[in-house]
């Protein structure tokens, strides 16, 4: 029996609420203010859990370095970051996909077309696999702006409802990969805190399989 709390890195933003709901359905008593708080560290001592709230792209970094035992991260982030962590579960929440998009009826520049993205690694490997040489322009958000103002020929970005593309007059050209959120673990924590981790995996798994049926 290990008394130190399991530390879980949670992604702030759109995945957060779905992840919190999943944990509640799995029977974890999270306080109501959990979802609204601006605190970055939240102790839920009744459950022997501690949550750290990070930017989604940073969750695997906290887990890789072992300051969090577990984390919840989108597959998009996992592909981009390639951190030394294990993926334990597909939580099947926050489904979306990565796509290539741009202005309608436009061809990419033949020489070094510019691709704007928050995912430079994913975008480079994708275009390399397609045999296309591209110039990657790294942005941190509002990626859809880039082709409209002439910063890039195409973007590589997340599409969820498709509303952002539509409202900005952009169209999808290629579907790269489907994305859902994953439960990830630090390899050392997985060995040392195996019982506690197996328990949380079992409880979450039960909820996920119920949802599928
Ligand atoms: C994400 C993504 C798209 C949008 C897609 O951005 O980068 O812009 O959501 O969602 P939709 O298909 O439902 O419209 P986010 O809101 O995370 O903000 P960002 O612009 O800072 O990346």
From TrEMBL:
Database matches in InterPro entries: ATP_PRibTrfase_cat, ATP_PRibTrfase_CS, ATP_PRibTrfase_HisG, ATP_PRibTrfase_HisG_short
HAMAP family attached to this UniProt entry: HisG_Short
Compartmental location: Cytoplasm
UniProt keyword annotations, A-Z: Amino-acid biosynthesis, ATP-binding, Cytoplasm, Glycosyltransferase, Histidine biosynthesis, Nucleotide-binding, Transferase
PROSITE patterns per the UniProt record, alphabetical: ATP_P_PHORIBOSYLTR (PS01316)
Domain (ATP phosphoribosyltransferase catalytic): residue spans on this chain: 55-205
Gene Ontology molecular-function annotations: ATP binding; ATP phosphoribosyltransferase activity
Protein name, UniProt field: ATP phosphoribosyltransferase
Alphabetical list of Pfam families matching this protein: HisG
Subunit structure: Heteromultimer composed of HisG and HisZ subunits.
GO terms, biological process: L-histidine biosynthetic process
Domain notes: Lacks the C-terminal regulatory region which is replaced by HisZ.
Protein purpose: Catalyzes the condensation of ATP and 5-phosphoribose 1-diphosphate to form N'-(5'-phosphoribosyl)-ATP (PR-ATP). Has a crucial role in the pathway because the rate of histidine biosynthesis seems to be controlled primarily by regulation of HisG enzymatic activity.
Family that this chain belongs to: Belongs to the ATP phosphoribosyltransferase family. Short subfamily.
GO cellular component, one term: cytoplasm
Main location: cytoplasm
Keyword match Glycosyltransferase: yes
Catalytic reaction equation(s): 1-(5-phospho-beta-D-ribosyl)-ATP + diphosphate = 5-phospho-alpha-D-ribose 1-diphosphate + ATP
The organism of origin for this protein: Bacillus smithii 7_3_47FAA
């Amino acid at each position: 029996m290990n008394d130190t709390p399991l530390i879980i890195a949670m992604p702030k933003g759109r995945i957060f609420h779905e992840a919190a709901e999943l944990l509640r359905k799995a029977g974890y008593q999270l306080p109501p203010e959990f979802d609204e708080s601006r605190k970055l560290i939240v102790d839920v001592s009744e459950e022997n859990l501690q949550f750290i709230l990070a930017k989604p792209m940073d969750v695997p970094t906290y887990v890789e370095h072992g300051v969090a035992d577990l984390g919840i991260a989108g597959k998009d982030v996992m592909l981009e970051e390639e951190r030394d962590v294990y993926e334990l579960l597909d939580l099947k929440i926050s489904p979306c996909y990565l796509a290539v998009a741009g202005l309608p009826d436009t061809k990419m520049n033949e020489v070094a077309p510019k691709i704007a993205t928050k995912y430079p690694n994913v975008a480079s490997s994708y275009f390399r696999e397609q045999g296309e040489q591209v110039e990657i322009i790294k942005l941190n958000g509002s990626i859809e702006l880039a082709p409209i103002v002439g910063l890039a020929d195409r973007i590589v970005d997340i599409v969820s409802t498709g509303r952002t593309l539509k409202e900005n007059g952009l169209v999808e050209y290629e579907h790269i990969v489907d994305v859902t959120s994953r439960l990830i673990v630090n390899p050392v924590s997985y060995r040392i805190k195996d019982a506690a981790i197996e328990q949380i995996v079992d409880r979450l798994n039960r909820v996920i399989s119920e949802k599928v049926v």
